[in-house]
# Entry
Amino acid sequence: MKSPLNMGIGVGVVILMVASFFYKVSFGGEFIPSFGLWVAAWMTLIILSFLYKDNPFYKAAEHIMVGLAMAYFAIYYIFQVLEPRFYNRLVLNELQPGEQLFGSPEVFRWALIIPAILGCLMLTRIFPKVAWMSRWSIAATIGLGSGLAIPVTIQANITTQIRAASQLPLDYMTALHGNAEVMPGFTNVHLWQIGVPLLMIGTICGLMYFFFSVPHRGVFGYAATFGIWILMIGFGASFGYTVMARLSLFIGRVLFLLKDWLDWLPT
Amino acid sequence: MDLISFVTIGETYPAAKLVMGILMLLFFSFVLYYTRQAKRGKELYVRPIAGLSAMNEAVGRATEMGRPVLYVPGIADMDDIQTIASVVILSEVAKLAASYDTRTIVPTGKPIIFPVAEETVRNAFADAGRPEAFNKDDVRFLSDDQFAFTAGVTGIMLREKPATNIYMGAFWAESLILAETGFLAGAIQIAGTANVSQLPFFVAACDYTLIGEELYAASAYLSREPQLLGSLKGSDTAKLLWGALILIGVILANIPALDDKLESAFGFHFADLFIFPK
# Structure
């Protein structure tokens, strides 16, 4: 906003926003719904202005978003976490059926003090002399997080993968036996004949790429290279798929501007 | 009691839980064995990983340009293994940056990660012998909201102009927004995530990308600590086991059933060992 040109453009945009809003309201629009709609529309345009370059309006929109999100989550944590999960249970004794520890609802209720203490210890960071106490809460969080994550990861990423890879030839045989519904829309037997071995080899070679304690040389190196090629092909397909999804989001936003805001398209 | 269940302490567990328990025990045994080997001084080889070899160069570039390094530890909470791995890498990156007298800016998106990142960077600066260079304001909490956090990070990229952007951890839809903005700002970028759906964006927009498990290997690669090297070697051995199990499954799937019925095939019984009841 230092140069007069930028200043002029900025003031012009603000005048345009205010004038267009009052124009709309004065021609029959209700104040509050119109206000919300116009804020959303202008915010959309301001965010898209970043495609040109960083500008003061984009900065303002960015700060509004960060500030609003902070305020929203502060309230969210108070009324959706602290109140129902802690205060209502511990102070008002409003326990849900089945909420018990060692077979006792009372033990469950009083055990809530432990996370509460850990939460309070996090606040000790405000006071440098006792800030070290917050490490207990951090240690508990990381320890619990890791402990819970390891079995879930093994189940989701290893046993499921082993099962899916082992099941693949069976799906192929099921398809050959005429029950092709194991993979809807993929009934071409010849494609199965190519696809199943390719998937098997791709899975094994992909695993080989992720061997870190063996040099990728010779046959092992070729297999690992094939594995990374398979991964890259997969990434390419995933990229295209996600870009399509993002385009649909963009189309939704353009429709909002043209239909809801400008009323140029029939509803 | 049928074929795929067993009884323990009055409860019936599906075979899949037993199988998973055995796999976990084997995995932990491999890790403990190789960790002990590493601690005894056995040299454990780790193959070069391009993204990590470039870390020195990337931090050095920031130093030469007199600009900070931006380290984004993802948007997942501390209960995500990727975040835990990211914090370990952050420690090494911050140590490197501190030794070069370069600022490390760490924006965080979860309240728990904020103090963890702060402690990590503070300790890294102390380990590098420069505790006084640690600037508390360089580790920031931005927002719990995914896109508010993204907006905040892109703002840092545009206004503080870091020369090096490092994204390590769990990322979702914000990955391309971050990587593209960093690219436009002219920063050298290194990314790493195990979120398969986001890897294509990092591969497309970053100079180096750590794919999947390379993120977990990074901490061992950078620190060369025996404990981490041992766990890396242990997980490699476990991968051999997973590959062998897949091969066994495929071979069994191709053996016809004794009664010639498809559903009685050995492969189905093997696959059943990995099915968790819903």
Observations:
- Strands of chain B lie at 5-8, 11-14, 69-72, 104-108, 139-141, 164-168, 188-193, 208-211.
- Chain B is about 55% helix and 15% strand.
- The longest strand of chain B covers residues 188-193.
